[in-house]
Each structure stands twice: as structure tokens, then as C-alpha cells.
Design brief:
- By secondary structure, this protein is mainly alpha-helical.
- The protein has 4 helices and no strands.
- The protein is rod-shaped and about 95 Å long.
- The chain starts with a helix and ends in a 10-residue tail after the last helix.
Length: about 100
Amino acid sequence: MSYVTRRALSTLIPPKIASPSGLGAAQDAQRMTRVVSFYEKLPRGPAPEVKPSGLYGRYQARYFGKNPSAAPIAHVIIGLMVFGYANDYYFHLRHHKHNAH
């Protein structure tokens, strides 16, 4: 087998499964038949798109997926404002509810 033929075959078949030196040998013919049948059974085409699950998965798919947006930045700002107001209310504003400071 020429070097070019061996090089071409080695790019098609992973080196751990078959070596170019064993391709022409009769004792490896059965093994190569198993390798070829294995690769024939593999699915063709692009992998199916995985549907996101869970709260974080759906959020990530919606805002960071194919059509990313800046909405998560607004969500963080609004969340910090709500957290800040809740903190202020708990530690200070609740004391002003019925009497002056």
C-alpha cells in the first residue's frame, strides 16, 4: 500500500480501531467488517436539538440562546433594587411606620 493510500485511510478510520498496516491482512478482515458495520449504524446528519429543562435551563435558552438579549442585565438591576428596598424596609423603614424617628 502506498503512503498516500495509507494516509487517506488513516483519516477515515480512528487509529485505535484499525491501523493502516492491518487493513490488507486477511486475519483482520473480520475485525474491519465489525468496524465498518459499527460506523454504518451511527446516525447521520446534525444532532437533534435538546429541549431545555428546569428554570435555569429555560431562562438560559430564552435569553442566551440563538437570539441573545440584554434583558438579564435589566433583571439583575431590578433584582438589586428590590433587594435593597427590602433591606432598607427591614432595617430602617419599618420603625417609621407608626411613629416619627
